[in-house]
Write the structure tokens for this entry.
Amino acid sequence: MSTMTTTALHAVPSHPGAPNDGAAIPEAWLPASPFAAHVKHLLAGTPLTTSLLAAVAGVPQRTVASLAAPTPRPHQRIRHVDALRLLQVTPTLVDDLQRRRVDALRESRRLQRLLRHGWTVAAISEASQVPPRTITTLLRGEGRTVPALTALRLRSVPLDGAPSTPADPRVGASRSQRPLAA
């Protein structure tokens, strides 16, 4: 018995309005419109943001942002692997991430690194949509666990994207390390 392997090829114009010159695109790329609809559905029906959805799915943030755009580019494509990862994210998975708890030590260390890179608690809170009180609790080492979705929110804050305001040295420091009030 012989087996035959075939690879599907799709001919797509190189840009909108261009004649189809027969250039074949390997199956690794798929039309993006069905996945754009899935992304928009997730963003509308869950507490996910584009950066958080990218973190949950394990895809580049620019891929999610492009799919979430109000008017997607004509003939937009998505990598097959990214499409599969996005389809694995469902509202049920998001609910599970909200309920499941993970060790908070990694997030505490991440928050400390963010502060060293110029982030403030308020800026981290705004960027991650995690309440400042939760961030302060983690910085003090008081929280042992954190919801998995909160951990992903904190991980979605880029180290190099700190706002231009300087960090407050008193935040996260022990009483003995805090500067004395004037």
Remarks:
- Strands lie at 9-11, 24-26, 29-31, 77-79, 101-103, 145-147.
- The radius of gyration is 22 Å.
- The chain is about 45% helix and 10% strand.
- Residues 33-45 form the longest helix (13 residues).
